[in-house]
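dumping this here so i dont lose it
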């Protein structure tokens, strides 16, 4: 590999580190999910090459494909974010800011409320059957 190609190419460990950071995940959490130590994650993130089976496991935990890790670049990510922002601003005249975690929590709360209503309904049915 030529020096110029080597210097422009980011190795897999750094790509994993960047994606992990973008996902808001600490090394300890990734390590726990993979069943290895935080020190092992640190070593992985310093490795230029990573075995395909290990890469697939890491990709699954990070919620991306192994190809997404291999092809990751900071420039493409920044460009994508800028394009999304520009598209939203041009289309709507303003930018909507929402938290995916907030949406998940709201869905979770809605499901809990639905389950509580179903449980109350079933309890009423049981009471009606007992009183007969």
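and the seq i came up w/
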């Amino acid at each position: 590999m030529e020096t110029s190609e080597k210097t422009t190419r980011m190795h897999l460990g750094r790509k994993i580190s960047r994606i992990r950071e973008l996902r808001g995940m600490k090394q300890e959490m990734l390590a726990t999910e993979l069943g290895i130590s935080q020190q092992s994650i640190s070593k992985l993130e310093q490795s230029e090459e990573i075995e395909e089976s290990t890469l697939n496991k890491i990709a699954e935990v990070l919620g991306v494909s192994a190809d997404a890790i291999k092809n990751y670049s900071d420039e493409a990510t920044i460009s994508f974010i800028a394009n999304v922002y520009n598209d939203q601003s041009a289309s709507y005249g303003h930018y909507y800011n929402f938290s995916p975690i907030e949406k998940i929590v709201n869905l979770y709360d809605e499901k809990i409320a639905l389950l509580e209503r179903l449980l109350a309904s079933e309890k009423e049915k049981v009471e009606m059957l007992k009183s007969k």
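Residues 1-8 have pLDDT under 50 and may be disordered.
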